[in-house]
Amino acid sequence: MKTFGGPVLFLDRSDINTDEIIPAKYLTEITKEDLKPYILEDLKLPGFDPKGSKTRNARVIVSRGNFGCGSSREHAPWVFEVNGITAVIAESFARIFRQNMFNCGMAAIELPKADLDLIISHSGDEDATMSIDIEAGSLTMNGGGKQRTFTFEISPFDKALVSSGGWVDYADQNY
Amino acid sequence: MGKTTAEKIFDAHLVNEPFPGTKVLRLDAVLCHEITTPIAIDDLIRRDKDRVFDPTKIKAVIDHVTPSKDTKTATQAKILRDWARRHDIKDFFDIGANGVCHALFPERGFIRPGYTVIMGDSHTCTHGAFGAFAAGIGTTDLEVGILKGVCAFRQPKTIKFNVTGTLPKGVYAKDVILHIIGRIGVNGATDRVMEFHGSTINAMTMESRMTLCNMAIEAGGTSGICQPDMTTVDYLWPFIQGEFVSKEAALADYSQWRADADADYDQTVEIDVAALEPTITFGYKPDQVKTVSELAGTKLDQIYIGSCTNGRLEDLRIAAGILKGKKIAPNVRAILSPATPKIQQQAMREGLIDIFMEAGFCVTNPTCGACLGMSNGVLADGEVCASTTNRNFMGRMGKGGMVHLMSPATAAASAIEGVIADPRKYL
After folding, report:
1. What are the chain A neighbours of B137 within 8 Å (beta carbons)?
2. Which among A12, A104, A120, B381 would be 20 to 30 A from B133, CA to CA?
3. What is the pLDDT of residue A1?
4. Would you state the pLDDT for residue A166?
């Protein structure tokens, strides 16, 4: 099973949409790698810099409700993937974005608001990192000398997609 | 306990349930366009799986940027075109025959009641207007759909919208759906099907029902769904008359997909349209809506009439009815993009194109371009557009641009006045 985790990028707002994650004008790129420089280019949040070191170093994104709403573009998970971000933690996800993440073998994990409040309380910690154990259904937030562990559930299908590395080979063998 | 339309379609298309809570469905139509399909094709080739499950069930169109604007978009078009030829996909629509996917495919009779439909495009929910389960999906799901003709879904719950009353003058399906999204919010229907019932919907044309279902995704909905009835049969009749002895026989068959009276709903929302006003978005989320009275006078730079939401003949007739003999205000520019060549041609025959052009509109070929800021009407930083499209995210029609979503009637009235304006005084 793939392991997930590392430095955390906090995007403390609901309804972050796919146009903010990767604007439509870049959908003419043919390879995933070409999307890399445009990550979160149109997202406006206090203190957030799409080109900054926090974005560049991040391996996990933490956000609020309805993350990834809008377009069906799988370019949204891809632009995360090519930037090394393979997990997003949020209160809820738009359906298509969530499934796109798992279809690519990445993780879209839902947590209750109270848990997210605690996690986002680490947003000022320079050393904020998270480790995620998909199999065990738990994640641990480290930062500011504190450590907090939370449990989560993902569907058995989504878990299988993460462990098999994606939906295409699975489907071709089974259908 | 009875079943909703989506539950009936799920039961009839179930291949298996590989894991609890996940249902794999057989697909009746896999729709493709040149933005999300080429990467799927490329990946299939890379995996040595360049196959299609059934070329007759795959429909493809170049619509987002057409004719191509540069080498990259020409390459996307070429990948789709070459693939369609290689796999003998007969229903492929290239320049000259192409139009906005969610207007073109229904116009060709490809969508029928009870169908399962996917496309790598979030506005695929449009096709639920025919009593189909139609969902937008990503490129990986599209890839599997192309390869195996199946797609995995969580069984969605259904919200019933009981929409009643006669639409007041100047109020249309677009105003109804903007009002609904304003009421339930941008995630009010996430993982839910939005099933539309009631006298208002029964009285709507198929074009209006498509406008309604088109924006289900803006409330997070998996699919919008209308109940198949004689209006559905009348629309489809040119394509199905060989399959049924009469329209009544077609209706009897399609009625199997209507929700049962005792179906179990996640919730029921009552909407009375009698007092509804023309409705417009004001912010950067589709649930931020106000009435035209509240927004009248808002400064504009561009008017756009078109898209999979409101680029159909009915929309053009309504807008032309307001624009006839009038000119757009000197402070704005206006663009009309009929959604398909058939619509464009019919609009020409009816003299609608003359009305638009004499009013000062630029009439473009059918394309999605401007709606998502890719071509044919991109905004500059700080500009404001009155648009009949479906998404008002910040920068959607161009970096730094602002979009007010509205009906074609409100867009036409706003073009005349150069600011957001009430269409009712022109009717």
Report:
1. 72, 96, 99
2. A104
3. 61
4. 84
Q: B293 pairs with which residues across the strands?
A: none
Picking from A168-172, B118-122, B354-358, B391-395, which range would have the lowest pLDDT averaged per residue? A168-172
Nearest to B22 among A32, A73, A157 (CB): A157
Residues of A whose CB is below 8 A from B15? 175
* B177 CB-side CA count, 13 A: 36
- What residues of chain A lie within 8 A of the CB of B24, using their CB? 175
Per-residue tokens: B365 = 């070929």
| pLDDT of B321 strictly over 80 | yes
pTM, two decimal places: 0.97
Q: Which two tokens stand for residue B100?
A: 């906005």
Report the residue of chain B nearest A77, measured CA to CA: B138
My answer on whether B267 and B307 are in the same domain is no
Helix (H, G, I), strand (E, B) or coil at B412: helix
Residue B38 distance to chain A (closest CA, Å): 8
Strand partners, B151: B25
| ipTM confidence | 0.95
List the CATH number of the domain containing B300.
Answer: 3.30.499.10
How many inter-chain contacts (A to B, CB under 8 Å) are there? 144
SS3 B30: strand
d(CA B296, CA B416): 13
CATH of the domain at A27: 3.20.19.10
Residue A165, pLDDT score: 78
Query: Would you call B50 an interface residue with chain A, using a CB distance cutoff of 8 Å?
Result: no
* Structural domain span for residue A43: 4-174
pLDDT mean across residues, chain B? 97
Alpha carbons within 13 angstroms on the beta-carbon side of residue B101 total 32
Residue B66's closest CA among B368, B397, B390? B368
User: Structure tokens of B148?
Assistant: 């195996």
Contacts of A64 in chain B (CB under 8 A): none
Distance, in Å, from the CA atom of B24 to the CA atom of A175, rounded to the nearest integer, reads 9
Q: What chain A residue is nearest to B68 in terms of C-alpha separation?
A: A28
Total domain count, chain B: 2
* pLDDT, tens only, B121-163: 999 999 999 999 999 999 999 999 999 999 999 999 999 999 9
Q: What is the pLDDT of residues B74-98, one digit of tens each?
A: 999 999 999 999 999 999 999 999 9
Contact A25 B20 (CB under 8 A): no
- Stretch B358-375: mean pLDDT: 97
**Residue B365: which domain range?**
280-422
SS3 state at A116? helix
Per-residue confidence (pLDDT) for residue A30, from 0 to 100: 80
The answer to whether B186 contacts A160, with C-beta atoms less than 8 Å apart, is: no
